[in-house]
Design a protein that fits this description.
The protein contains 15 helices and 13 strands. The protein has 461 residues and is an alpha/beta fold. The structure holds guanosine-5'-diphosphate.
Length: 461
C-alpha cells in the first residue's frame, strides 16, 4: 500500500460536464493548499491555507494572475477529506468553458490531471473506504432506479461487509484452532472438536449460499435482466413494450410486420431492471428487411434471461404461435406467456398454452397496467426474503465469483472432515477460503483488482 505522502497532487472537475449552476473543481494531494493559494485569492485578504478547515471562503480564481471567475473554496485537512489527503474544493460558475479554465488554473498552479476514479482510489488506499464501498459508489453513480440507489446505500453496503467479514472471522478462528492442533497434537487446546468444526463449516456454507443466492436479486436490480418480447405480428408486442416503457417509444400499428428493428431500452419494473429488446415477429418471411429482424430475435432469445412471449387471445392460434411454442421449449431463459388482449372475447382456450408454459399471465397490454407482470418478474428474479436496502445483497460479479471460490474451498474442507482426515488437508482449504474472502473484504487485494475496479470511475470521482 502506498504511503500518503508519496502521491502527486491531482485536480479534476468533479461535477458532470455541461452547463450547470455551479461546478466543483477538486484538488487533492500533499500540495493541494499550495496549489490553491496560487490560484485562489480570498477577498478577505488571508490565504486559503490559513483559513479554517471546511469553511467556505469567497474569492477570485486566477489564471496567469488574472481573475477569471469568483467562487467559494474550502480546504479539508488530511485525513478528514474524501481522499484522506489534503484537499481543496473550489466551486465556480458552471459554464463549460469556465470550469475548464478553472481546472487549467489548477494545472498552471502545479496540480496534475487526475485519472478516472483516482480520487476514490486514493480514498481506498488511504483506508477511507473498503473495496466494497468503492464498488458501491461506482454503482451509485450509474444507478438508474431507486432500488439500485438503495442497493448502493451505506446501510446496504455495511450489511454486506458485515456478513462477509463475519464468515471470514469464523473461518479464521476455525483455522487457528486447526493450526494449534497440527502444531501441538498432544495438547488438549479445548477449541473445536471435529463435530463442532463440522457444524461450523456447515453453518458457514449456509451463510455463503445465502449471499451467493442474493446475487440473483442484486444483478436484477443493478444490471437488469436481458429480456426479449416475442410473438407473431400484431400480437401486441409493441403495445406491451410501450406499457413497460410508459411512453410511445415503439411505433404501434395495425399493419402486420412493421416492427422491423430491434429496439433496446433499460426500464425499471418494480425493484428490478429490464433490458428490453422489442423485436420483429417470429416467423418465416421473404422480406429481407424483416428477415434481419426475425434472425436477430432468434439470436436474442437464445441469449435472453427472460422471454415474454405474447399471444393474441382474440384471434385463433396459428402455426406461428405453435412455432414460437416450439422455440420456447429449446430456450434456457425464464419464460412468461402473455395472453394478451384480455379485454376482447377469447378466440381459443388458454389451457393450450398453460400446458406448455408454466407461467402464463392474462393481460391487456392496451390500457392495462404492468402490475401483474411486475409481480411475476420480481418473483422470478428476486429472492422475496430479501429487502433491497435492508439486507446483505451481493451486487457485483467480482463478489459473486469470490464467494463461489470461498464456498468451493470450504466444502472441500468439510469433505476432509467428513472423510476423517481433517487436519492438513482441511487447513489448506480453509486457508484458501479465507484468502478469497479477505480479497472480497479488501483485506488483501492484488493491485490488478484494485485497478480494475477504479477504472470504472469517471475522472473527478
Ligand atoms: P405487434 O405487431 O406484436 O407489435 O403488435 P402491436 O403492439 O402493434 O399491436 C397490434 C394491434 O393490437 C394494435 O392495433 C394494438 O392497439 C392492438 N392491441 C395490442 N394490445 C391490445 C390489447 O390488450 N387489447 C386490444 N383490444 N388491442 C390490443
Amino acid at each position: 500500500m502506498h504511503k500518503m505522502g508519496s502521491y502527486s497532487t491531482i485536480a479534476a472537475i468533479s461535477t458532470p460536464p455541461g452547463k450547470g449552476g455551479v461546478a466543483v473543481i477538486r484538488i487533492s494531494g500533499p500540495d493541494a493548499f499550495a496549489v490553491a493559494d496560487r490560484m485562489f485569492l480570498p477577498r478577505n485578504g488571508q490565504p486559503l491555507s490559513a483559513a479554517r478547515a471546511r469553511m467556505q471562503i469567497f474569492g477570485d480564481i486566477l489564471l496567469d494572475g488574472e481573475p477569471i471567475d469568483d467562487g467559494l473554496a474550502a480546504r479539508f485537512v488530511a485525513p478528514y477529506s474524501y481522499t484522506g489527503e489534503d484537499t481543496v474544493e473550489i466551486s465556480c460558475h458552471g459554464g463549460f468553458l469556465i470550469t475548464k479554465m478553472v481546472l487549467s488554473a489548477a494545472f498552471a498552479a502545479g496540480a496534475e490531471p487526475a485519472a478516472a476514479g483516482e480520487f476514490t482510489r486514493r480514498a481506498f488506499l488511504n483506508g477511507k473506504l473498503s473495496l466494497t464501498d468503492a464498488e458501491a459508489i461506482g454503482n451509485l453513480l450509474e444507478a438508474s432506479s431507486a432500488a439500485a440507489v438503495k442497493l448502493a446505500s451505506a446501510k446496504s453496503r455495511d450489511k454486506l461487509s458485515a456478513a462477509m467479514d463475519g464468515i471470514r472471522a469464523d473461518a479464521v478462528s476455525l483455522m487457528g484452532s486447526l493450526f494449534a492442533r497440527i502444531d501441538y497434537p498432544d495438547e488438549d487446546l479445548g477449541d473445536f472438536s471435529d463435530a463442532e468444526s463440522i457444524s461450523l463449516l456447515r453453518s458457514l456454507l449456509g451463510r455463503l449460499d445465502a449471499l451467493i443466492e442474493s446475487y440473483r436479486t442484486g444483478r436484477a436490480v443493478n444490471e437488469g435482466i436481458a429480456t426479449v418480447i416475442c410473438g407473431k405480428p400484431n400480437a401486441g408486442k409493441s403495445t406491451l413494450y410501450n406499457l413497460l416503457l410508459g411512453e410511445d417509444a415503439a411505433i404501434v400499428t395495425d399493419i402486420a410486420g412493421t416492427t422491423r428493428d430491434v429496439l433496446e431500452r433499460t426500464v425499471p419494473l418494480g425493484q428490478v431492471l429490464l433490458r428490453l429488446s422489442d423485436t420483429a415477429g417470429i416467423r418465416e418471411t421473404a422480406d429481407p428487411v424483416e428477415r434481419i429482424g426475425v434472425e436477430k430475435t432468434q439470436a436474442r432469445m437464445k441469449e435472453a434471461e427472460l422471454v415474454l412471449a405474447v399471444f393474441d387471445t382474440a384471434r385463433p392460434l396459428t402455426e406461428e404461435d405453435t412455432a414460437l411454442l416450439d422455440t420456447l421449449d429449446t430456450l434456457s431463459a425464464s419464460k412468461i406467456a402473455i395472453l394478451n388482449k384480455s379485454d376482447l372475447p377469447p378466440a381459443w382456450d388458454a389451457s393450450e398454452i398453460e400446458k406448455r408454459i408454466p407461467r402464463t399471465l392474462s393481460l391487456s397490454a392496451k390500457g392495462g397496467d404492468g402490475a401483474s407482470l411486475r409481480k411475476e418478474v420480481e418473483a422470478l428474479f428476486t429472492n422475496g426474503d430479501l429487502t433491497v436496502g435492508e439486507d446483505a445483497i451481493v451486487s457485483s460479479a467480482r463478489q459473486h465469483a469470490g464467494l463461489l471460490t470461498a464456498r468451493e474451498h470450504l466444502s472441500l474442507a468439510l469433505d476432509a472432515y467428513l472423510s476423517g482426515l481433517p487436519t492438513d488437508a482441511a487447513a489448506s482449504d480453509i486457508e484458501r477460503a479465507i484468502a478469497a474472502l479477505g480479497e472480497l473484504c479488501g483485506k488483501s487485494v492484488s493491485e490488478a483488482i484494485v485497478s480494475d475496479i477504479f477504472s470504472r470511475f469517471c475522472v473527478g470521482k
